[in-house]
Amino acid sequence: MNDKNLKEKSGILIGRMQPLHNGHIQVIKNTFKEVDELIIGIGSAQISHTVENPFTAGERTLMIKKALIEEGVEGDKYYIIPITDIMNNSTWVSHVEMLAPHFNKVFSGNPLVQQLFTEAGYELSKHVLFDRKLLSGTKIRDLMINDGKWEDLVPKSTATIIKKINGVKRLKHIVLKM
Amino acid sequence: MNDKNLKEKSGILIGRMQPLHNGHIQVIKNTFKEVDELIIGIGSAQISHTVENPFTAGERTLMIKKALIEEGVEGDKYYIIPITDIMNNSTWVSHVEMLAPHFNKVFSGNPLVQQLFTEAGYELSKHVLFDRKLLSGTKIRDLMINDGKWEDLVPKSTATIIKKINGVKRLKHIVLKM
Amino acid sequence: MNDKNLKEKSGILIGRMQPLHNGHIQVIKNTFKEVDELIIGIGSAQISHTVENPFTAGERTLMIKKALIEEGVEGDKYYIIPITDIMNNSTWVSHVEMLAPHFNKVFSGNPLVQQLFTEAGYELSKHVLFDRKLLSGTKIRDLMINDGKWEDLVPKSTATIIKKINGVKRLKHIVLKM
Amino acid sequence: MNDKNLKEKSGILIGRMQPLHNGHIQVIKNTFKEVDELIIGIGSAQISHTVENPFTAGERTLMIKKALIEEGVEGDKYYIIPITDIMNNSTWVSHVEMLAPHFNKVFSGNPLVQQLFTEAGYELSKHVLFDRKLLSGTKIRDLMINDGKWEDLVPKSTATIIKKINGVKRLKHIVLKM
Amino acid sequence: MNDKNLKEKSGILIGRMQPLHNGHIQVIKNTFKEVDELIIGIGSAQISHTVENPFTAGERTLMIKKALIEEGVEGDKYYIIPITDIMNNSTWVSHVEMLAPHFNKVFSGNPLVQQLFTEAGYELSKHVLFDRKLLSGTKIRDLMINDGKWEDLVPKSTATIIKKINGVKRLKHIVLKM
Amino acid sequence: MNDKNLKEKSGILIGRMQPLHNGHIQVIKNTFKEVDELIIGIGSAQISHTVENPFTAGERTLMIKKALIEEGVEGDKYYIIPITDIMNNSTWVSHVEMLAPHFNKVFSGNPLVQQLFTEAGYELSKHVLFDRKLLSGTKIRDLMINDGKWEDLVPKSTATIIKKINGVKRLKHIVLKM
Q1: How far, in Å, CA of F32 to CA of D153, rounded?
Q2: Residue D71: which CATH number?
Q3: Residue C163 near residue C170 (C-beta atoms within 8 A)
């Protein structure tokens, strides 16, 4: 959208959320200190059933919604938008602008995402992200594969959803070598 | 998602919403008589700036969200998901299942959508849709092009959004012949 | 394939086969007067569930196989290959060459297909095709929609397949106006 | 490119050039009254061998180059860039920006192109285009199909190229009905 | 296809066959103990001319057909279908269903393929596959590159085809470093 | 283009030019000993903003044009054509033929490119390329990232362009780990 004044303070945060974990929730809640409205973009939306990306966009959408209800974040304040990958980095910001309502602040810890939005003239939040060494999707997926305790690192509803869809079994099967 | 029991009563309604109008709002509100949760799919999400499809997926997402807030529909009860077209009808239901959280009832007045979901084993709602002869995107776009009174046919917030983004001017320019 | 001498006399015939009908069968049988081996390409393989293209590539593959068994055409003498459309006419012959075993003669009544293969240096058969005014996919689909007698215009096994998959019902539903 | 000051006066003109004709040449020459450098974008670059778009991007590139040499336009002053179509109007300007060197003025008589570049903040030239009723690709293709005199409507080198590649024969064959 | 009863016992086996080898032939022949009809899907059909995937779909189709004729497997009992990769695992089964005639049993040693078909409700065969440590495409390609004896590991007709198309020379050239 | 006699001696050279460097310029100038006209294809045109491919096709087009002006290579003698990647090696030559004017000689040090053009019947130049151990895009990008002296390895105008677009800063940011 072109009208930069439609909403004074609106932000976007994009992540793969494979799976959604407590770090994401903490960051999402913190963004509301800076913006009135948040677009939560689900990155690599078309990818699923891989070791790095076990869950579908729909499953990840459900995880986010249920966790934010659990946390008491009001449903009117955010959007959950699947963002499929495209082959061209230089048109990617334009692709996001097409899919998402207007925003003027970007929350990201990803250097490429930062670079692309900066070149397109967007303001990056200085907002501190969670410590990826302590908590990351990679770490959680490793725990799932190796029968570790992953359940406390994700929202309660996310753990429930993963169990209902047999997510750990899926991941353990995919990781097998042929 | 495969677990058919995750949510007892969840539905999907897919439309292009070019633009969102009062008929859509009435149908969306009626679906909640049959389901607890509704996925609102924005069809042909990648198309914009054409006479048939003037608005982007992001703009249409904004229209829906603001109108449902206006109507007092609780934000926790629905999802707004852009659905890009794919070339293959026979894989389209699978494409929707990838992008959307689990659903078990389909609301659609479109014969092709009905056929595809029926072949995939979904239940169609008998829910009566709005009368497309009285109210349709086509009719509203014609009024916009010909300086007619379209504002009362759409939610108040939708009219505001279309004005802020100069939507009528966009449509009138695109419709010009080269 | 590059080795032009691998098989002395091999041909290709491409059609949408929506559905397979007696004209196709007659042409296929006639090609064996000119070639030892025939590649039957199913055109627009990715399209289905439209009024012009009601059947999937898989359904059309089944129709062809069962009809040729019925006709006593030996299974070792032909290939059935789905050919998806690509956006570029000028790379289309190369796309077909990638998907199909080597061939050196082209059977086609389609002017575009003739032009593309001719520019690529292939020999076109002078082989007379069936009379499209008497027998065509369009005519058969019209009969299906209007409760006409279409069954005698297609191979017996094709009629059986169409009935088993509720093909006429599918076509009649898709043709409905929203 | 982001540096808006790299070249003070650089323009872009996009057309399908099916085929290149004297109107295009006149417009191209006129643009140099406003800009130092011109990017000539070949639209719908991936399409060829259709009645509306008979020639490939490579053939059209050759037509433009040879005609501009003929006209004495210096080769250092322009770029010829094939622009493939993408499905999304709202990311199309970004797609052009990826493929073309920096530009700051847009020459176009196409309302959609004008709208998209305007929304992206570009300046449109007021430059008067040729009269499309007198001279157009459509008119020239019709003359080719109907054995009319088209040769004088295109640059001499373009006529030579079309003859060498048997372009009229191609067009006449493609236009045949199956 | 939706009619699950069209053919009582039909199976699908998908492999890249780069190249076809004796292990594939052994497995294909064994499947007929469980099914009446077999669909042989050529995976990654669009890939060729890489070190991992030297042969085109057409070349692989030819290898399979000629080897099965050699082995006396009746041509009416199987289909050879190229399956192009798509980006989305979660719609891949639907993509295969579009391209292939109806099937109800899946033969695969690939964990991802097993997982995807299982989630879609298909029955996997317990059928023992060949020992991939003794015989694999990787091993054969390594032998080709290093002038080893690969000919006895593939069907006789496959060796002939590879020689006719200069397949080993192709592979040796592609593997060179720039 | 099909007419092989349109231009007696025309060549193509394809490279990613990430960035353009003195080795490319030396090779380009040498090709004119063998051909009258050169097509300079920019490979992987759609990729940018990666560590291996930092610059857009448009930026690379500008680098080439300005460097050849600097070197006094006449603008009428060459074409600069962005070549986007396609998924299929076996249709890639056809894709290049679509985008480029007619050529009959290929300049390439890339084994895959050599193989594909050779299988399509093109003549490869024996022309000696620059020594990739002394001078390569990889080496230059490493120098940029590590504050080395890269400026003397590229044309003067290329260094200027990279500075104006903050290319080194872009590369240093992208290379950061998340």
Answers
A1: 34
A2: 3.40.50.620
A3: no
